[in-house]
Every structure is written in C-alpha cells, then in structure tokens.
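Title: Prediction job returns without error message
Component: structure pipeline
Severity: low
Priority: P3
Assignee: unassigned

Description:
Job completed but the reporter wants confirmation the result is attached to the right record. Sequence as submitted:
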Amino acid sequence: MKQIILGTAGHIDHGKTALVKALTGIDTDRLKEEKERGITIELGFAYLDLPSGVRLGIVDVPGHERFVKHMVAGAGGIDIVALIIAADEGVMPQTREHLAICTLLGITRGVVVLTKIDLVDQELREMALADIRDFTKGTFLEGAPLIPVSAVTREGLKDLITALEHLVAQVEQKSADGIFRLPIDRVFSMKGFGTVVTGTLLAGQVTTGEAVTILPPGITAKVRGIQVHGEKAEQAVAGQRTAINLQGIEKSSLERGEVLLHPGTVEVTKLLDAEVIYLAHAPRPLKNGAMLRFHTGTSYQMATLYLLGINELKPGEHGYAQIRLQHPVVALPNDRFVLRGSSQIQTIGGGIILDAHPQRHKRFKGDIIPQLEALKHGSPAGVLGLHIRKAGNRGVELKRLVGLTNIPPAVVSAAVQELLSRREVIKFDREAERVIDAELFMQLAQQMTATMEQYHAENPLKPGIAKEELKSKLPPEVDGKLFTALLADLAGNTVVIQERDKVRLANHQVALKGRQRELEEKIAEIIQHSGLTPPSAKELGEQLGAAEKEIREILALLADAGTIVKLKEGIYYHREPLSELGKQLVALLEKKGKISTQDFKSLAGVSRKYAIPLAEYFDAIKLTVRVGDDRILRSGGKE
C-alpha cells in the first residue's frame, strides 16, 4: 500500500488546524499555549483513512511568520500539499511564502482549499476563487483542484477527500531501497517507554531491534519499538509518519534537526555544492559571500554562500554555489533546501544539493561548472564515475558510493558494472567491492614502471626491486590491495615479472660484462674455499680491488642464482659447507638429543660471530628448533 504524506500550508488563522480536525477528528494543537492563543506554534500530526484504503499521513504546519522555520521542518517530507486560503482574507504574506517554500522543496502536486466559506456570501466566495486562480498561475498549483470548504458546516469535505484520493493515485511511492533516513521533528519521553523521536521517513526502512545512529552527534541506540500513524508496527518504510522508541538514550541528548540512520551509511558534512534558485520577489541581488539561514530536512543554521563562476544572482535567476555551514549536517545529493535572510527574515531562495562532500573550490576555476552540470543532469553511471574519480588513489567502496550519491544500491551496482564493462573503472578489492578510476589506475601503473626503469638504470646488477620498496615510491593512499592489483595487471600484460619478494621489468636482464664476470667467478671460488668463515663484502672488495657496492651486487646475484646463501648479518656461505655442517648437526642431535650454543660453536669450529647466524639459519630452514638455551632436532627435520 502507498505511504503518502499530506502537508498543510498557508497564512496564520486561515483554518489549517480546524480543517485537519474536521477531516480526521484529531486536534493537532497539543501545546497549552497553542490552545490558549488559538494559533499553531509547533508541528501537528494526524492521519486520514481514504476510501481507497490508503492511510494518508498529515503534517499540520504553523502559519505565523515567526514560526516559518517550523513550517519548513514539517514540509521537508511531504508528498502533496493542501494550500489553505481563508475566504474572508484571501491571499496573505505567508500564503505566498509557504507556496514558495513548497516549490523550493520540490513539491509538485497539491490541492487549494478555500476555507471559512461559511463566513462569506456567494459573491465574495467567487471573488476569492478568482483571486486564487490568478495567484496560482505559473506555479505547480495552476489548474490544481480548488475546493471551497467549511470546517464548521462540513460543506465541501467530501469533494476535498475525493480530490485527495485522485492526487494520491498520481504520487509515486518513495523508495524503500534507499538509505534509511528519518529527520527528527519531535523528541519526547513516555513513562514506561523512555525516549521517543518522530519524523517522516524519507527513504529506506527500519525494523524493531535494529541499531541506529543519530547524526550529527554520532550517538548509537537500539530501536525498542515503532509506531506508524499511531499504531504499533514491527517495521516502518519510506513515506510513513513514524515514531521510534529508542533504547538506552536520554531525551536531553537529542533534538530536532538530527537524523536517524543505519550505522555507517552516511557521513556528516559542513560543505555543499548546490544549485541555488533565487526567488523573483527577493529584495536585492544575492552577493557572493552572503550569510543566510539554511534549512534542510528538519534542521536550520547559518551558512555562507560562495557563488561559483559569477559574482551575484539577480532575483529570478539560478546558479551554482558552494555552501559553507557553521555546523555539521546530514545531507545527500538531490536533497532540497530553503534559504532565508539573516536579518530581514524572509524566504529568498533555495535549491538542490548536488555534492554533499565536495572539495573546496576556487570560484572561477574552469572545470567546476561542467562538473556540477554533469552531477545535475548525468546518468547514474556518469555521476558515479565523477565520484569514483574524485575518490582518487584510494578508490571507493560501492557501499560508500550509495551514501555519496544517494543512488539506490541496486542502481549503483548496475551502473558500476556498466563502468567496469567499459573499462572506465577497475575493481581491485573484491571483498570490500572497492573500485578506482581506470585513468588513475593507469597513471599509477605508469609511475611503477618508471620507478622500475630508474631502479634498473641505477642498479644494473640487481635482478629486481623489492616490492615493499616499490610500493613506498607510490602515493601513501595506495594500500596493499591496490598495489597487488597493479602488479597483477602489469604482470598480466607481461610488462613486469614477479620473483618472490622482488619485481622487475620483463625486458630487464642482468648482464655481467668482462671484469664483472671475472669478479663473480672469483667471489664464488673464495666463498667456497673459505668454508664456514667466509669474508665480508668489505673484505672481498679489499682482496679483489673492487668497490664494496659492486661486490654486494654480485653477492646478491649469486644468492638469487642459488650458488651461495645469505644468512643474517649479511654473511654469505657457499651451499657445500652449509650442507656438510647440517649433516654433522643431525648426526650429533640424533645421538645426544640437544646441543648448546657453545657446543655448536665447537662443532662448526667458528667464533660466535659466525655461530649465531649459522644456528639461526638451521632454525629458519626448519632443521632445528630452539628450546631455552639449547637446540633440538625438529620433528621430521633432516638436512
């Protein structure tokens, strides 16, 4: 069944609350002050069961100019509006302002109700109807049903219900697949239950027992119970007036303007890119750097507007701006907002959020406007591509893309698949479903090959660069999974070859020339003949009249070839004496069961300088295992 919210709008004392009571039997004025003064101050809530079976949620808003901020908070989640105009007064200032606010909030369907017809004669009624038709020309209410009604005599109520029935049939149901968001418009405590928050569920769904986060404060709570239109429910879905009983949280820690969400779905922001619509009746041009009252959802605060590509907006114009907020807010692309003056408090404009997590812009940078145009008009794949590119070298998870774009998960998944098939993005982390812009991926791969080219040029005798060293040359946001994907891509295209912990360009070959070849042979011979007390690289260099760096490079080559073995402390042994010592060690351990470090020194006939690395080598190859100060033969260990 459809979940639809109707909101009232109109000037103070034009009969909004009386009409709601006549339709539903519910008095939405709940405050003592409201009843004493006879005006609506806060938001009121009711519901109407239509003949079709649809339960229509109703938000009754205050009409006084001082309480427009409450009106905006209530209007944010409505689907259709009933613009209330009293027959004895006609169109008044808040009639105009409320209609402008509804337009700015993207409401496109409604009905106009001429109330208090019992107070005027037929001639005045007809005059009022004619004035209303003129007033609504050029607005979304032009041609909308115009129903004369009396809450006192109940004349016209059936016609109004019929008109509402037709409107409801035209409204598309809000998506239950989107991100669960409930902007809080009321917080109270109930004896025996605890803290309760209410709001219009904008998107998604919530179920009893689930964990929720309240942002901006970042408080986590559990859903203890749910009511929809005053009745207990296990689940609430988009489009419903919802009350949620929260477990383990005090009423004093929450307030209107905060938002209930599922944990980890959305991040707060203080910076927004938006299209700004400046109303034609605004008193003066909107200048760059203007400080205004910014309303979105059920929240409002002061904000500064920085116009992009222009210095001012004239009344009736629209343009792009970066909005800098004083406090964090929950906002998503395609959310609507309202702007009101900071000193002369009246509604002057509003707009649509295009990017809720932008970078700070230089106002006249050439690519800003095309990017914002693409965000406004682009396909899901186009919008996602922009956000993936903006994520940079870290890449971005599909789950986070949902929160960044306000595009439903299934649509995000399909659009990313489209981008993958076109090779515009690369998926490099299947577990977290993380993707990166293909052009950035290519640039990182090119940076890696350039680094390897330089390394090979500077180290011609080294077979390859250590993977960790290569990774350290990349931007710090490149993590292990992206690095592995880059290597796999380069290897798959036969650009590089991976060899254990090293990597080299496929065309790199170590080629020893004349003297270097002689050095290699002499070094191998010296190490073989030196048995278990081989010379260091420095000593080899002195003995052979070569630079220590060159000696180390050749030692590394011999080790990679398997001719010699590198132990800790940079000591190189020929395989033959190591193998012989291993056999002696096994024979001794099979006989005695264990060997101390001192006895190992005696067995090898070497000083502690060589004995410790040798003993640790046999541990490393799993021949022996250290137990206290002794070593024993590892189970199954044989040289």
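Comment from assignee: result matches the submitted record. The longest strand covers residues 318-329.
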